[in-house]
Design goal:
It is a single chain. By secondary structure, the chain is an alpha/beta fold. It has one domain. β2, α2 and β3 form a beta-alpha-beta unit. The relative contact order is 0.15.
């Protein structure tokens, strides 16, 4: 059983297509509609979800890109999902512009083969991304719907190594319980509240410092094309029908991002793909090549294992 946390702020019809593709009875689905999206979109999503069992809407708050509010939304989502049911084993976060590349049966079977495994991109921030250390070495304040750069320096918490990755993840229920409720995480919550783009570092740093993590796969199981975009440096390229073959044969479980106002044909192609045996049948990795625990497995290794 899977717990999904779904972030929506625009394109309600596209979100509905994605939701239908990831819905399966027995799973739990918690939807966060950004407060800045307006009451009409929230009402539309609420009405759409009404017939589906196991779904709820998280009380809305504004979530600002680059701010701790995105971390706060996810923590609130994890807490609520923990309360919604005791039988789910893995947490998956998605945006309304994501889409699955495999069916729910495939994904459930895949996760059953990886109990207590965390799928999250995790890199030593100082070693691999020193250019981003300014995000944590100075105080940033989220206020008035923007990020304020104070220029005030500060030290990272003693005895903790900062890690960095992406916002997207598949993590175990045990990790959700730890990050939501363990007192050891409180100081990192306080620290990251005053950082920049905390959603790409907070969960990685919690995972790799102190949590008895078992196996960690350095992969978020998403197909994403990162392209340059000015000051942001990288953004996910929008997939089109020209990417259909690549997405259909991808070893990943999901892809992002999509924009049906730009190209809806790719969504139609992926909806048809989900009806095929290739997208529905998971073939377990033989024991002889399964990853040992607890080392971190790099993305290339994960792809190779999945293809084996």
């Amino acid at each position: 059983m899977i717990a999904y946390f779904l972030l929506v702020h625009r394109y309600p019809e596209q979100f509905k297509r994605m939701f239908r593709a990831v819905y399966a009875p027995g799973n739990h689905y918690l939807v966060h509609v950004d407060a800045s999206s307006g009451p009409a979109l929230a009402a539309d999503i609420r009405a759409f979800l009404e017939p589906y069992q196991g779904t709820e809407i998280l009380p809305p708050k504004r979530a600002l890109w680059g701010g701790y509010s995105l971390v706060d939304a996810e923590l609130r989502g994890m807490k609520r999902l923990l309360a919604m049911g005791s039988r789910w084993t893995h947490f998956i976060n998605l945006s309304g512009q994501d889409f699955p590349l495999r069916t729910q049966r495939y994904i459930a079977d895949f996760l059953a083969e990886h109990p207590d495994t965390q799928f999250m991109r995790c890199a030593d921030q100082q070693e691999v991304r020193p250019d981003t250390m300014n995000r944590v070495s100075h105080i940033f304040i989220e206020a008035f719907q923007r990020i304020i750069r104070t220029g005030i320096p500060r030290s990272f918490p003693a005895g903790v190594t900062p890690f960095i990755g992406t916002q997207w993840k598949i993590v175990s229920r045990r990790f959700c319980e730890y990050v939501c409720h363990d007192p050891a995480v409180r100081r990192l919550k306080r620290f990251y509240r005053r950082t920049l783009i905390a959603d790409e570092g907070f969960f990685q740093t919690v995972l790799m410092n102190g949590f008895q993590r078992g196996a960690v796969v350095d992969d978020d199981m998403r197909t994403i094309d990162w392209v340059p975009d000015g000051e942001i440096k990288l953004r996910p390229r929008t997939f089109t029908i020209r990417d259909a073959t690549r997405l259909k044969i991808s070893p990943d479980l999901f892809a992002r991002k999509f924009d049906e106002t730009e190209d809806s044909e790719i969504l139609e192609a992926l909806e048809a793909h989900l009806e095929t045996p290739f997208a529905d049948t998971f073939k377990p990795v033989p024991d002889r090549v399964r990853p040992p625990s607890p080392p971190v497995i790099r993305a290339g290794d994960a792809a190779a294992l999945e293809a084996a």
